[in-house]
Amino acid sequence: MLTSSRLILARKRRRMTLASLAKMSGVSTRSLTAFENGHKNPAPETIESLARALELPVSFFLASDVDEIEVDAISFRAPSKISALDRDSARSAGRIAVEINDWIEHLFSLPKSDVPTLPHLSPEDAAERVRALWGLGEAPIPNMVHLLEAHGVRVFSLASDCSVVDAFSFRWQRTRPFVVLNLEKSGERGRFDAAHELGHLVLHAEHRIPHGPDAEQEAQQFASAFLMPRSGLHAQMLHSADTARILSAKRKWEVAAVALAYRLRDMELISEWGYRTSVKQLSQMGYRSGEPNGIRRESSQLLGKVFSVLRSEKISPLTMARDLNLTVDELNMHVFGLVPLALDGGSEASSSAKPQLRLVQA
Fold first, then answer.
1. Beta strand pairing status for 167-172 and 154-157?
2. Closest to 225 (Cα-Cα) out of 199, 257, 254
3. CB-hemisphere CA count at 13 Å for 210?
4. 9, 52 in Cβ contact below 8 A?
5. Is 272 left (phi over 0), alpha (psi -120 to 50) or beta?
6. Which residue, 44, 49, 41, is CA-closest to 10?
7. For residue range 221-243, what is the model confidence (pLDDT) as tens digits?
8. What does the DSSP 8-state code read for residue 68?
């Protein structure tokens, strides 16, 4: 029997309306509506047609019911530039990430979350508090993805067909924190996105929801303060820094040059005139649209270890994908492309104890 919630999830994941799915599958819009409302159950051959159109195994549509991620649980940047289809596709991708995480947690003991909720603090104070709680001092953060994973945040990649979305975060069932990152941004932008989403998790919790321009601005301020702490920048003596000095300093903090210039102006270490002059020069050098000679994009340490252990246990990616009722290609979109390319035919072995994945802050 088809599970209606999974048909809805798959259709949204593929950015399809009922009309477009009807065109792709050859099933009428009226029948699709009845299937999604649970008023009618399709014949097996109809489920196969839907599975082909939505590029997912038939088993995906027959598995247990799934709850969607609540619309209010996610804040999208520049929502006016993102269509409803794009938002729903990204939200559905996040739901699949939850499924993947559940499968992993069934086999592995993962770090518990210790992300604080500090909705009563300013972004600057909250960033300082989290740094203190996590023992980061005033030094640059070597790897934001590894740091989040070490503190119990589940980090997944945003599927490439959702690239219009920068990144997003949510607390699944108001407890487990997730961050989903777009891999098509520069390494520096990816670090800032990860810190921005941490800001949402820290600031927009409890009675506060992560919505609106004010929430986005707060998350930006949190990310800026978290990656470039006030005390660290003062110690580097960046007062009146010119463009050359900004380019030199950005390599230490591994942030975008324009983001560092903005932070220095915000801290009144450079004047408004100095900021505008530097941003103009940086734009002319290509730093507005990208990050010339930038750093490598960060990836997941936790997922890399998971696939390594699975390989040693002779559990293939194909087996994992089948358990999740996904294709290997769909699985790979959510796990930083870390699925090993060589498929071994699906052999598997069982283990009586959950492996402990110990993550080290890089």
1. unpaired
2. 199
3. 28
4. no
5. alpha
6. 49
7. 999 999 999 999 999 989 999 99
8. P
